[in-house]
Design brief:
By secondary structure, this protein is of the alpha+beta class. It is 52% helix and 15% strand.
């Protein structure tokens, strides 16, 4: 039986009616207009700050454009700086100045894209920081006295007393008391969460939340600056953002391409000089001089900028930051960009049944008598065994028994027997009578230990409930089994469609449950998962993860308890519930503030959207370069009479260069919204995505520049 059966505290779970599958919370979807204005103002200022060479050098492609801007600025001031130019000084200075301005805005727009992405995270960090203000904490001293100190002076292991209305000063765990905690400042959910000692899940508290009732004694589990909110602030601000492996690989590729094109452009003067010398003899000095004039330093830099992949180079960081921001807007904090990206590469999803695939609160639906007993007799024993059980399942058993007319009188001698993972049953002792309910095997063992016999009809009732997809609990009084309780599991609506989408993307789903194999198979079939493991133990979770990883797959799973921590650490993507234990949150690389286990399915979608967006814009960028080649390369040779190369029929070399560079600069801000929002996600296979990218972004990336450059050339006054 799943150990969730008798957890004595029911933590608040978020309602997600306002969130569509794969979408985000409606209340976080749009930044208010006033905030957007401030965001863009800060981004503009940051765009200039990022011109600092120590910052600019982090992006190899745009750093080359940055250096090119400096060089063209120098030749604008002195056109003869790198040698005597053949063209008129005034015209050459004007052309160089125009090129300098365009290159400058190209760098500025790339900085703006990154700054906007970072600014969205900083806005969220400011809201979080407001919950982390210094406060007075009531520290408990070893002699029992209370000392008021600043919360920043608390250290791991210190104990503090929190009373009604107090902010919890730091991350910790409840070691005494019970109370309701308002976590809305972190989770955005208004429903308070019950916290108390002695429970695995509900004892963890977060600094910056407020106690609404009673009082708690909390043991601090984090040193100053290392709490959960501190880590959240650093992550959403991007202060600790490191490039992911795929991003690093793409950056290296772009840097290598830039170096290759740099070599090509650097050797162009020698090639054009050789051709010019040939033209001097074959055609005439005028043709040779025209070609030499066409290969000025500004032209060469323009050629280089046209060749290198500036579009994806300018947007790459923004795409990665925006991916983490989308996760944060979904109320999940990722400990690194690597975790977000790994979601997109996940091959296997390991999910708990209870609370993830099913609604979690199993309800008593029927009492099935065995051993010749009546339904009323079974109801009486079920009521007696459940009067001390405060779980939703226990309360539903009491309600069903009372509905059937059962009554049970308690007196001071009655004692509740709590559920434990070892015994797998709970119940009541009263005047020498023992009432128990629990896993069928556990009740069998209990009855036999009291000298009783197990009726053959018990297994029939057990299989009957299992075939219906429910959880069977046996109930007994002393050494006699009375019947089976049918706890009904309800599969969450829409999950089958979600799993079908994952399957189309090549993601395998595995359900873990403590239920028997018959029940597990029914639920697995109804939910549409690919595989399941019944009667699972914490060790089984690690085994299934390692088995999948041994096949070269990336595995994701959710968890909330201390016993989930090893598996969360083993998984490539571990999503811990915010309502879970500190051990689970530290082992995972993602924390869900809403404590919704099904969100892992959405995170896979977000991760894949990040990869799809990066791939689509990379395809568009490479395709863009093809069109720019046709705009600029012919201008080097057109003056020498090779006009056939000018297939776009641009007015002149100067107009072609400026038109291509203007398009090159403007396409970056045009694509910023797409980079931040992400390409629309569709559940397709890798081959289908590649075909779609080539047809839409590849073909579009070729056609758009031809049209735009030609249009710009027509309106430019250059000739």
């Amino acid at each position: 039986m799943n150990t969730r059966f008798s957890t004595s505290i029911s933590t608040s779970t978020s309602t997600h009616a306002s969130r569509s599958p794969g979408g985000r919370r409606d209340d976080r979807k749009h930044i208010p207009k006033a905030d957007r204005k401030g965001l863009y103002q800060r981004a503009i200022r940051a765009s200039f700050t990022k011109l600092n060479p120590r910052v600019a050098v982090r992006n190899p492609v745009m750093f080359v454009v940055w250096l090119g801007t400096i060089v063209t600025l120098l030749v604008t001031l002195n056109p003869n700086l790198f040698g005597t130019v053949q063209a008129e000084i005034g015209k050459q200075r004007l052309l160089n100045g125009i090129i300098t301005c365009i290159l400058f805005f190209t760098v500025l727009f790339a900085n703006f894209a990154e700054a906007v992405a970072e600014g969205r995270g900083k806005a969220q960090a400011d809201a979080l920081r407001s919950t982390r203000s210094d406060m007075v904490a009531r520290q408990l001293l070893p002699d029992g006295r209370i000392q008021e100190i600043n919360s920043t002076e608390l250290r791991r292991g210190d104990q503090v007393k929190v009373i009604v209305g107090d902010m919890i000063p730091a991350d910790g765990e409840v070691i005494q008391g019970i109370g309701s905690v308002d976590e809305s400042a972190i989770t955005g959910e208004s429903a308070p969460v019950l916290k108390q000692t002695g429970t695995d899940i509900a004892s963890s508290v977060t600094g910056g939340t407020r106690l609404l009732s009673d009082e708690l004694i909390v043991r601090i589990t984090a040193d100053p600056g290392q709490g959960f909110i501190d880590r959240m602030i650093a992550l959403v601000e991007g202060a600790e953002r490191t490039k992911t492996p795929n991003e690093i690989a793409l950056t290296v590729l772009l840097a290598v391409l830039t170096q290759v094109f740099l070599i090509v452009v650097a050797t162009t003067p020698a090639i054009s000089g050789y051709i010019a010398g040939f033209l001097d003899h074959a055609v005439g000095a005028a043709a040779g001089n025209s070609l030499r004039a066409g290969t000025s330093i500004a032209i060469l830099i323009s050629l280089l900028v046209a060749l290198i992949p500036t579009t994806i180079g300018g947007l790459l960081s923004a795409i990665g930051i925006a991916g983490m921001d989308r996760v944060a807007q979904f109320n999940v904090i990722a400990t690194s960009g690597r975790a977000v990206e790994a979601c997109g590469d996940v091959n296997t999803l390991v999910l708990d049944k209870t609370g993830t695939i099913t609604l979690g609160n199993r309800l008593a639906d029927e009492f099935i008598p065995v051993n010749g007993h009546s339904v009323q007799e079974v109801a009486h024993v079920c009521l007696a065994a459940s009067v001390f059980d405060e779980t939703p399942e226990g309360r539903s058993i009491v309600q069903l028994a009372q509905k059937l007319g059962a009554k049970f009188d308690l007196d001071e001698s009655a004692e509740g027997i709590e559920f434990s993972a070892r015994t797998r049953m709970s119940g009541t002792d009263l005047n020498g009578q023992e009432f128990r309910k629990g896993a069928v095997d556990a009740i069998k063992g209990f009855v036999r230990s009291r000298g009783g016999q197990v009726p053959t009809t018990l297994d029939e009732a057990y299989e009957q409930v299992s075939r219906m997809g429910g959880t069977p609990l046996a109930v007994c009084q002393g050494n006699e089994i009375y019947g089976v309780i049918y706890l009904k599991d309800i599969v969450k609506p829409g999950l089958r469609e979600r799993f079908d989408q994952l399957r189309r993307m090549g993601v395998k789903t595995i359900m873990l449950t403590g239920d028997n194999r018959i029940t597990a198979s029914v639920i697995a079939k109804e939910a549409g998962v690919d595989d399941f493991i019944a009667e699972a133990t914490p060790e089984d979770k690690i085994d299934v993860i390692r088995s999948e990883q041994a096949q070269g797959k990336l595995v994701a799973m959710t968890g909330d308890g201390t016993n989930d921590a090893p598996a969360l650490a083993q998984a490539n993507v571990g999503l811990a519930m915010n309502s879970g234990t500190q051990a689970a949150k530290e082992a995972a690389n993602m924390v869900d503030l809403d404590s919704d286990p099904t969100k892992l399915i959405d995170l896979v979608t977000i991760g894949k959207q990040l990869l799809i967006t990066r791939g689509a814009l990379t395809t568009f960028s490479v395709a863009n370069d093809i069109a720019k080649y046709f705009a600029i390369i012919p201008t080097i040779f057109a003056a020498a009479g090779i006009g056939a190369l000018n297939i776009m029929e641009l007015k002149s070399a100067q107009s072609a260069i400026v038109s291509a560079l203007i398009y090159n600069a403007l396409i970056i801000p045009v694509l910023i919204p797409l980079a931040l929002r992400g390409v629309q996600f569709r559940p397709l296979t890798a081959d289908q995505l590649l075909q779609r990218n080539i047809l839409i972004y590849g073909l579009g990336g070729i056609i758009a520049p031809f049209i735009a450059i030609k249009a710009i050339d027509l309106v430019l006054p250059l000739s």
